[in-house]
Amino acid sequence: MTLWLSAGIIFTLLAIALILFKWGNLQCVGVTPVKTFTFIAILFTSGLDVGLIMFPLTEFAGYADIKASPEYAFANPLAIEFGFWGFLIWGFYFLTCFYFCVIEPKVKFFEIPWVKLVNNVIIIGTCAFTAYLLLTNLPWYLPEVGDGSSIIPTFYLLVFAAICFAVYSSTSLKYVRFLSISTTWLFIALIAYMWGAAFVFGDSAMSSFANKFALLGDYFTHINEFVLPLNDYHEFYLFWWFAWSIMIGQFTSRFVGGLKTYQVLAAMLVFPSIPIAIWFSVLYHYHEAGISTAGIKNFAMVFVGIVFVINSLDSLIRLYTDNLNLTVKRLGLRNYMLFNIIALSLLTLLFKLEFLQIQWVGALVIGVFFSCAAYIGYGKLKTVRQIDSSPKDNKIDYSKIETAS
Q1: pLDDT for 111 beyond 70
Q2: With b meaning 16 or more CB within 10 Å and e meaning fewer, what string describes 8-45?
Q3: CB-side neighbour CA atoms (13 Å) of 151
Q4: Which residues contact 150 (CB under 8 A, 6 or more apart)?
């Protein structure tokens, strides 16, 4: 699996370099273009899930224990955490976003029946894994509700409610846009609240935070260390990013609003990484200073985490239902709601029973990458070489989102 993953990463980086070389100044326009801020908000909230909120505080100590994990010794725990979530790995999303915006309309690889089937299996499986992550992390963040370790009926109910809300939100792109922008501002508000709460503990909090933020320089100094898997846990993360990459690229490609290719790459690498860096720095201050997050802080983090789950799920549900023509128009609202709620609930339980693994989904995505490249090389190379623009039917009209169903 490690060799397969490494091959996928190297292929991805080489493909990005080729795209920049050939189409770096090409203007990218999606089917339903939106303004840049909205595009970034959709990308950020769709491309991340509850792990961003809930994982760091549970992981810093492990990254600091270099006796148990000497492979982390080259950088500090904050830089390691950021390396698992920020900057370079957002290039996965850029590759697929550009492909679906510019190349797929000409190649139509994902319209091949077996590819369409595999693609939707990937999307549905990753949706369920997102809900599963929320379920398994709730005991740690809400020990007041249970015993701090067991998953109780209340937690199942919270996840079920999130699935229901996400399914309803997926019924219209207008809801998706509104939820994406709202979630972005909500996350910023959570950062501000957690940051402000930390200042109560002393006058040196601001300088302490600045010192923590500066630790992120370790990531950029040792960025090469994060390219290939450091260990099994990093491998899990990288497979996770691959699992998301096709569907996030497919979904966000429709919203690109006229940015040039190099600007899309810059936007994807830089803009999501800024709030991630600030958030992780705030949490690392809590970790290092031993500041408790019990009570209202934990509830606030869980609330934002649930909203992230809803935001991720609604975009992915919208994607696979469109792909499979299981739309509200075809099924009716009631049948649409019932089908998706039941399917995602059952699949979430399969992850809970460890019947499914996200690594399998990521490995399958890498196989799709290679298959697509082989398909282009065998029969579509001339077509791809002649691409010099986004599809002609895609016009920069920001009002389209208002009338999209």
Answers
A1: yes
A2: bbeebeebbeebeeebeebbbbbbbbbeeebbbbbbbb
A3: 15
A4: 139
Q: Is the pTM of this model over 0.70?
A: yes
| Pick from 341, 336, 313: nearest CA to 326 | 336
DSSP helix/strand/coil, 28 = strand
Which residue from 75, 96, 84 is spatially nearest to 51, judged by alpha carbons?
Answer: 84
Tell which residue, 42, 400, 87, has the closest CA to residue 248: 42
Nearest CA-CA partner of 28 in 279, 235, 258: 258
Residue 158, both tokens: 């919270």
Summarize pLDDT for 198-249 with one digit per residue, the tens: 766 544 566 777 788 899 999 999 999 999 999 999 999 999 999 989 888 9
Whether residue 244 contacts residue 15, with contact meaning beta carbons closer than 8 Å, is answered with no
**Residue 273 in tokens:** 């990484």
Q: Which amino acid is at 340?
A: N
333-352 and 296-323 are packed helices; what angle lies between their axes, rounded to 10 degrees?
A: 120
- The two tokens of residue 41 are 């908000």
Residues making up the chain, counted from first to last: 405
Q: How far apart are CA 313 and CA 93, in angstroms?
A: 17
Q: CB-based contacts of 162: which residues, under 8 Å, 6+ apart?
A: 131, 134, 306, 309, 310, 313
